[in-house]
TrEMBL record:
<dbReference type="InterPro" id="IPR008949">
    <property type="entry name" value="Isoprenoid_synthase_dom_sf"/>
</dbReference>
<protein>
    <recommendedName>
        <fullName>Terpene synthase</fullName>
    </recommendedName>
</protein>
């Protein structure tokens, strides 16, 4: 990591900590630790570059050099992941979407709409912050899966709903307290939507081999556990926590049933 990037990241220690811990919780216990470390650094940069002041802060970066430093470091880390066997086409998608979706350029519009309690506005904000798809694509690139591109194509839409909804459910109490727009406050039967996404994803992944089924199911369970265990979501309501726990049990049941069926067919 360059000195400039290190200095910039030192300004946002919580974002760095969150990125590293997210990667550790989601990846390090199942995949090579080196992949997890690099992914955590990339997530930290994504979190930082999503901040409103990203384009405005010139204490460290000159106005013409900031993006160059970030771009060079981003390419360096993605190249390291490719060298560790991560899928290069998915990494290319991460690179493209980092700049299209996570640069922070939507924040003026988002801020101006922050006090509007409208479902269309909430969904507009969710669709343009871009983290879920970027996060899922990066994690899928890191997983040891042969030809992950068709898996991404088949699961992307529903997985983005799942990732967004779990985060919004876990954030509901905190967002309500802080006056932040949370789309689930305005969504009819939000838990039903999440449950439907889980069922649809598991149905789709059964088209692929058993290794894919297990890894995607475990990814989804780990993502829910991440929100149940993280201090960031300590304010999650008891009823929402129970619902999230029930979805882990559901995924465990789906996976156990699938493995039993595969064993019977063998």
């Amino acid at each position: 990591m360059t000195v400039v990037i290190e200095k910039y990241m030192s300004m946002y220690p919580f974002s760095v900590k969150e990125g590293v811990e997210t990667a550790e919780r989601m990846l390090s216990h199942r995949y090579p630790h080196e992949k997890s470390i690099i992914t955590g650094e990339l997530l930290a940069l994504i979190f930082i570059c999503g901040k409103p002041e990203f384009r405005l802060n010139e204490l460290v970066f000159g106005p013409d050099k900031k993006m160059d430093h970030v771009n060079s470091w981003l390419l360096e880390k993605l190249t390291e992941l490719k060298g560790l066997g991560c899928n290069d086409r998915l990494l290319a998608s991460v690179y493209q979407n980092f700049w299209v979706r996570s640069e922070g350029k939507m924040f003026r519009e988002v801020e101006s709409l922050g006090k509007t309690r409208d479902l269309d506005v909430a969904d507009w904000v969710r669709a343009r912050t871009g983290f879920p798809g970027l996060f899922y694509t990066m994690c899928l690139a890191v997983m040891d899966i042969d030809e992950p591109e068709p898996i991404l194509a088949a699961t992307y839409e529903k997985m983005v709903v799942f990732i967004d909804d779990i985060n919004d459910i876990a954030s509901m109490v905190r967002d309500r307290r802080d006056g932040v727009l949370n789309s689930l406050e305005l969504t009819e039967s939000p838990h039903s939507r999440t449950l439907s996404a889980i069922a649809d994803i598991f149905c789709v992944i059964q088209r692929f081999n058993p290794d894919v089924v297990e890894k995607i199911a475990l990814f989804m369970m780990d993502y829910i556990y991440l929100h149940l265990d993280s201090p960031r979501y300590k304010d999650m309501g008891p009823s929402d926590r129970k619902i999230c726990e029930s979805w882990i049990a559901l995924l465990e049941g789906y996976l156990a049933s699938y493995k039993l069926t595969q064993k019977e067919l063998a």
